[in-house]
Design goal:
Blueprint lengths: L16 E4 L6 E4 L7 E3 L5 E4 L7 E4 L16 E4 L2 E15 L2 E12 L3 E8 L2 E7 L5 E3 L9 E4 L2 E20 L8 E9 L2 E8 L2 E10 L1 H8 L20 H28 L3 E11 L9 E2 L3 E3 L4 E8 L5 E11 L5 E15 L2 E7 L1 E9 L2 E11 L5 E10 L5 H29 L6 H11 L1
Amino acid sequence: MSAGTPPLSGPPKPQAKALNCPKCGAAIVLRSFGQAETVVCASCHCILDAKDPNLAILQQFEIKTSDVRPLIPLGTRGKLRGTDYEVIGFERRSTQVDGITYCWHEYVLFNPYKGICYLTEYNGHWNDISICKVLPTVDHNMFGGSSLTANYLGESYKHFQTADAGTDFVLGEFPWQVRVGEKAAVTDYVHPPRVLSSEKLDKEVIWSIGEYMYGREIWEAFKLPGVPPEAMGVYENQPSPVATNVAGMWAAFAAFAVLLLALIAGFDMRAKKEPVLHQTFHWERAKVANETSFVTDVFELKGRPSTVEVKTWAPVSNEWIYLNYALINQDTGQAWDFGREVSYYSGYDSDGSWSEGSRNDSVVIPSVPSGHYYFRIEPEVDPAVPAIAYSVEVTRDVPVFGFYGIAFLALLAPAIITSFRAYTFERSRWSESDHPPMQLSSSSGDDE
């Protein structure tokens, strides 16, 4: 370098190299320079040796379908996670499971300074893929078969599936010796939103790490027209839309539940629970005249307006008694009218013994002002009952917990709904794996 030559601030910006296919003469552009091992002629579908100055033909394949075309055209440039990339290669791969063929697409991206990375797409689900910088560790299954977990950079991944993946179609440049028809054993481990994959071809094993991306992110990154294909189903490392909220929801529920219990305890201790009337009454059909109602002794309710609880007990057995109550303020004439039934039935049938009803009944009248009160009671009794004794107990200022029960359910419902949504999402995810939920359930049932 001469003294008058200014120093370079960095490596020179590479330019694409134009060549011609040795078979059909079509123009071939090499964008990745020394990175490419093979390049595919788009015209005659010859796989060429990119390292050979004469582009020696390595393989030629036939297209079985005209529907194979990349969603991101070769040569498209975009900014992915802050780095400029150009799409230089595309391949379709497939695997067969239970006689069903599943296909996905892989894109090779190139940056002259960052090198190579990849994008994969399956049914509208995308992943940003790069080669692992360090070798993951695998916990081997003591019973043989696939390992159940793998660890990469301190993060644990669960085994999702192992399958043989074949290459069906290739286009553009690849940093390895690509071949159509070539098969590799692929094993995926997931820790959403990441997927850790090993690909074994012959004796070589390559590990890669991928992170889930949404189609709209890809379209924005590469400025693609239209809208991305809609994602179908739940993908193996697709992040759950609710999983991150489940723990927070239950933590919030626990905090509010503790507060609710504290309020319940406080109101319960504050309540007077003051007995104001306890009487037993006798009813005989032979003594019932035209006037069947009667009034109780007068009792006093003191202090602030409060709840009044009315308890009724009757020794009924396959019988009923109905009481028409009226709580009347002796000073103002204000009345609270209500009716209560006490009934109890039991017996035996083909399923065994049964019972329904109760010999006890309770009702709470809210916000009754202080004053002098009495009850007017009008009993109606089962026609089969000649006589019956029943008791009435009245208590002032009792705590009512029904509102707190509603509040508890209102707090519990969002946590349950969120957990259920997270559960169904994960169930859908793992139903496509080598460890589907039904299989796990059957296995656990067989062990018992």
